Amino acid sequence: MSRGKQARVTAEHAPPVAAVRAGSRRASAFLARRSLAAHRRSWAAVFAAAGAAAALLGAFALVLGSLLLAGPPVERYAGADAVVAADQKVSYTAKPWGSEPRTVSAYLPERVRLDRALVARAAAAEGVASAVADDSVPVAVGDGAAATARSWESAALTPYRLTEGRAPGGAGEVVLDADAAPAGVRPGDTVTLRADGAARSYTVSGLAEAAGGTGSPAVFLTGARLTELAGHPRTVDAIGVVAERGVSAGALRDSLRAALPEATDQGRAVRVLTGAERGEGERVDALGGRGDLLALLASVAGTVVMVALLVIASTLTQAVHQRSGELALLRAVGASPRQLRSAVGREAGRVAAVAAAVGGLGALPLGLLMRSLLETEALVLPVPPWLPLTAGAAGALLVALAARPVAMLAARRVTRMRPSAALGAAGAPEPGDPGRVRTVAGLLLALAGVSSAGLATTQGGQAAALAASSSAMSLVVAVALLGPRIAGVAVRVLGAPMRRAGGVSGFLAARSTAAHTRRLGTALTPVVLVAAFVCVQLAATSTLERAADRQAAAALRADLMVTAPGGLPSEVAGTVRGVPGVAAATGVLRSAVVLAHREAGEPVLDRLPVLGVTPGQLEGTLDAGVTAGDLGDLRGTGTVAVGADRAGSLGTGVGDRVKLRLGDGTEVAPRVVAVYERALGVGDFLFPREALAAHVSAARDHAVLVRTDGTDRDATAAAVRDALAPYGGARTGPATDDAVRTAPAVSGEDDALMVIGVGVIGGFALLAVVSTLTLISVGRRRELRLLRLVGAGRGQLTRMLVLETALVAVAGLALGTLVAAIPLTAFSVALAGSAPYMEPARYGALVLAVVVAAVAGTLLPARSGR
């Protein structure tokens, strides 16, 4: 028979391609079902890791989604149909290297005010029943309780109603709400209020209460008196608008937009806020805080995705490698590579799908817990019904989609073998060589991590933090890829001490770890991950706090300070200067500026906290560590002092001008009169107080720094208290670093992010340690039973496992600490100019947590094998 005829006959009798593929799929499905039943304990560890990863990813998706929808609550303007306010956003456009121009935006930290003439124009708009100018003035009531003063006309915007008495009829009368009224006060009584000046007595004409409650105590004065206290008669904070009956929100918005100009005299857009947007008119910096929080949480979420994928990949890879012999045997008896890869992928996909579904359900309580840590009075984080479902599904889908390709890739080496070679590999020990491609990739990532750390030392601010974070992640992934080689080094370093200290058990532990470096490398990866991540999170914060505390303490030369709830009037510093025994007194006003600049070619708007100080006696109370110029020249509205690092990044020096936007968006270019080195303690910019006073929401000093002449500090403090008695509520005590810190040492946001970053993500990493070591321990039960059969005692095996656990914990912690130390050192040198620091107690807690997790993952699952 000719070859052509034979081929035609063969083709005629060959089964259809579709039938072959269907048979292959049935065979793969059969293998997957049988393998799932036979390896339930191994897949349980994968199930735990995948479920936890899905829960964590879904929780972060929920929190990020809630933050994107977040806004300030509507309290003060609950009775208004619309609020007219100035736009609080600023923009900056620049052309990055080799790209199209980009525009970035930021929210201003101080209120931008409107021309008071707009009140009449709003009132004349069609469909408007009334328009009320609304100003806020911080005041102290009685012995110093903080409250907000408003005009009685604006009480209708909440709304408030009188419960006793009547509205204020003159400059000396006041209406108090229930939260602001001292106990037992009734109409006709007198109450002391302090605003921007000495305290003054007012007659209580009435008591009021809000219909729905408000966020802060309020007192109400006549409109004329409030305008006098506010100190800006030509401008107004906002305008509250009440519509005529039957006018819709959309119609009112259109009417007001037609009646009002598009922008203020300063070029700021005029906004008409309705519905939930009205809250933006109450708390002007709430959305700015949301933006800062979103940026921080998004960077943490990126780390979470990397950590979750790394844990899933590590766990799945170990589960597949433990079955190398089984897969090789199946290959030897005729299973095709496609069938084996499909079977392994089906197993992993099914386990991951069920785990992801369970984890998606767990994302809801975890996400709500994280959300509760971030929610504040100024920012409400909504959770619409669709958000938990979407977030949980997103986390579950990512885990489910990642599992199958990872498992199939892990099985690639065995499934590509020829049947004859696979038969020999079926009984061979697992390979320790990670492979050339994996080794090269690991070395390249390690080099990239070290390079990123080096780059961080040349950067500042956010660029340095991003470079350090990138370095840490690159190094952790490099450790995962180079795990077997690193494990071999660890065995050579720690093997000899382990043999000497452990006797027979030490010999067994050393030989076992040396023979299974791939397994040991897999065990090290989650330990390195948790150690590196927790160290970076804790040490970065501790390093900056410690450096800032030291610089603030070194800068503070005052020995007394004066504070008061709601701040101090501007004249207090002058009053204190005249007290006998006072050598110097400086008022400190807190604000913020917006700096437009470029980082790595990208346009950036940084919101930076700053201090405004009263000149004249500044050198007696504050030593910023001047390296050039003179703080004595810090006078008027056109001068500024700049921190040395910031001056270096901007390329400015004494005599140059630096372009800034003040807290209310006013563009200025003050002349640099001094450069100082203690910027972490006192901020990047120091202004004369008068340069900031007209551009803050409330021109109240945070504190007055007082330096005594050294004769009798207690007597001087008593004299200061007596001199400030007319101001009511002023407190005099020892000076602390917080007086000159531009921001609190640890804010509520920092605490929340610390709990989320260390508690939630660190907890997940510890769970990865337990699940990975449990998976390894389950795969070793046959090995342990064989050791028992050849004569090893239970005690010897227990000591062997203890020594192996100690090796994993010690090597993992040492390597994780080293991985963290490289980017941390770069970060600390760039931003703090010092070595990284971590509190010993925190590191001790990390060591304890890792040891407990290692013991739980190694000794407990291995008991049945002994």
TrEMBL record:
Residues 300-413, 760-863 form the ABC3 transporter permease C-terminal domain. The keyword Disulfide bond does not apply. It is a multi-pass membrane protein. It holds the Pfam family FtsX. This is ABC transporter permease. The chain crosses the membrane at residues 43-69, 293-313, 351-374, 386-411, 440-457, 520-540, 752-779, 800-831, 843-862. Keywords: Cell membrane, Membrane, Transmembrane, Transmembrane helix. The keyword Transmembrane helix applies. It is found in: Cell membrane. InterPro entries: ABC3_permease_C (IPR003838), Membrane_comp_ABC_pdt (IPR038766). It comes from Streptomyces halstedii. Its main location: membrane.
